[in-house]
Amino acid sequence: MTRIFSGIKPSGHLTLGNYLGALRQWVQADQHRADALFCVVDLHALTVDHDPARVRRLSRQTASLFLAAGLDPELCTLFVQSHVHEHTRLSYLLECTATDGEMRRMIQYKEKAARERAGGGSVRLSLLTYPVLMAADILAYGADEVPVGDDQAQHVELTRDLAERFNQRYGATFVVPRAVLPSVAARVMDLQDPTSKMGKSHAETSGIVYLLDEADVVRKKIMRAVTDSGSEVAYDPEAQPGVANLLEILAGCTGRKPLDLAAEYSTRGSGYGALKKDTAEAVVELLRPIRERHAQLCADPGQVDDVLRAGAERARGLARPTVDAAYRAIGLLPPV
Ligand code: AQP
User: From ligand 1's centre to the CA of 189, what distance in Å?
Assistant: First the structure.
């Protein structure tokens, strides 16, 4: 059976980008067709300046949102990364496989390090090495597929390279995984700056739709989305990134294609206003059941704990043999 691994880091409140780019395909497809593991990758939230209490709170909220969005612990395995030590055990071996040159080429490292420096902060070493930890997250489980948004594709490529290099040097140990990207909304853009990704840790929040935003807040953010000069709706991400982003979001919500939607608006002669209104209502309806289920889960935190406990136990059992095999293959003496 196909094995799937993916995760979300508790570095902020989950966004519409996280949902359309990742969570939705986990819920609608992946958990039904494969042995799927979904993880709150909390160690990744420590790579930039962080508040311990907030990370703890967001870890719990992220797990609750996994359930609220429709992940079913009867169908898939849900857990928190730091509860399974195999991730960090394996990460060190992969640090001994990766080179510093390939780490410095990672786009996310370059962008985030620049952001940290611009804010007067220092850059944590873990920001450079976290793609290796992500590779360990994936390889520990022998995952065949990694469903992610477009921004994570480079890290999955690195994971493939590390798996192949390790296998070549030390013998077949890891499955070489592949990234699976959604066909629409693989990169939801910020509504106020449609040339940059909607990211949950970004400081400016007016262009970000959070899964737990109230309906009126969602409407306001989408109605105020930056669009482009002109008024005719066309799908052209280069020339009209703001409109293209709204079309991608609407397509993501409705299961339609952005080009088909654009053609309909154009034929009807409807402008940006109609597109914004329809997108806002589609997003409100998409998020309504998630917010409602999340509120129910908040009233019963023990239920989330039970799911995470059972998930970590299963995950440990799956990861340990592969990580033990990697320790032996690389030349480490097994414990006596
Ligand atoms: N805007 C997005 N569009 C489509 N997919 C997205 N993902 C994230 N943002 C978008 C996908 O969601 C999964 C988990 O993301 P993450 O936790 O690794 O990163 P993030 O939500 O992008 O969080 P941050 O903290 O704001 O990170 P940076 O600063 O890196 O942008 C992934 O599958 C991701 O592709």
Answer: 11
Question: Residues spanned by CATH 1.10.240.10 within the chain?
Answer: 215-295
Tokens 């990704």 sit on residue = 197
Q: What is the CATH number of domain 215-295?
A: 1.10.240.10
Q: How far is the CA of 239 from the centre of ligand 1 (A)?
A: 24
Percentages (nearest 5) of helix, strand, coil residues in the chain: 60, 10, 35
Per-residue model confidence (pLDDT) at position 121: 86
Residue 90, classified by CB atoms within 10 Å of its CB into exposed (0-12), middle (13-18) or buried (19+), is buried
Q: Is the pTM of this model over 0.85?
A: yes
Which residue ranges of the chain lie beneath pLDDT 50? none
Judged on CB neighbours under 10 Å (0-12, 13-18, 19+), 326 is buried
| Angle, vertex CA 152, rays to CA 10 and CA 53, nearest 5 | 10
Atom from ligand 1 closest to the CA of residue 15? 21
Atom of ligand 1 nearest to the CA of 202: 26
Q: Using CA positions, which residue lies closest to atom 12 of ligand 1? A: 18
Residue spans in the chain of domains classed CATH 3.40.50.620: 3-181+301-330
Residue 86 has a pLDDT of 98
Q: How far, in Å, from the CA of 265 to the mean position of ligand 1?
A: 30
Active site residues: 112, 197, 200
Q: Which atom of ligand 1 is nearest to the CA of 7?
A: 14
CATH number of 3-181+301-330: 3.40.50.620
- What is the pLDDT at residue 141? 98
Cα separation of the two ends of the chain: 35
Model pLDDT, residue 171: 98
From 5, 6, 18, give the residue whose CB has the most ligand 1 atoms within 8 Å, as the site to mutate.
18
15 Cα: distance to centroid of ligand 1 (angstroms): 8
